[in-house]
Amino acid sequence: MISPEVVKVSNCLVDLAENPIIDAASPTTISIFGGLVLMTMKDIQFNYLFPMLIVFALLFIPKIIERLRSDTAVQDNRSAPAKPLAYIKLNGEANRGPDFLMYNQDSLLISNEDYLGKVYLAEFFFSRCPTICPIMNRNMKLLHDIFKDKDFGIASFTIDPEYDTPSVLKSYSESITNNTINWNFLTGEKSEIYNIANNGFNIFAGVNSNAPGGFEHQGYFALIDKNGYLRSRNDKFGNPIVYYLGIENELAEMQGVEMLEEDIAILLNEK
Q1: Confidence grade of residue 79 (pLDDT, cut at 50, 70, 90)
Q2: What are phi and psi of 143, to 5 degrees?
Q3: Are 46 and 175 in the same domain?
Q4: What is the model's pTM?
Q5: Is 1 within a domain?
């Protein structure tokens, strides 16, 4: 005699409305296309759940594995902050930032000694720059706003001193921020500025009539610690990255300004 618990299967859907609680081990009659088949609920679970698990495995497990690999690659490619940060060495010795004496936007003489006891950034720009300078100083302002109440400063050297007089730099600085207490826009003798760039910080700057604005330079920021030494984080191979890119790099997993936010904080906490 057929058990009254009849489960009808139609279009692969099991209707248990008339008997919502069925012992998984008890025989159950299934009507499939008019035929009667004696099955248990364990059979039903196996016959329907197992193919679903196979489909899930085929569709999603490769994606999960790929995601894990991708996350690992991101971590491997990202330059990790070192604690403490590396010293930039020249001939085996830690390299100090160059000496300088320049006029700032307020016509005040500013030297490297004014930055002793502070962590500071150095960059090279010019006020009429139509390309990377606006991006660099937009990113520099982000860092300035974060650390403006700390022992932090910025030295922005113009590579067009003949045009960028203190009064011009004053207007330029005010177009960026209304608080430049710790941010000096510096001008002076052209030969001295280029010597500081190319030989002091080893950041290229030069005159090029074919370049936009008539000058070319690298969009790097140099990081200097409280004692005047050039510092940076290491790359994944354990080598100093030396400089931080002041503009966005679409291929980078971490932007230079993001690295600097971390690394400036590290140096500020150093004794």
Answers
A1: low
A2: -70, -40
A3: no
A4: 0.70
A5: no
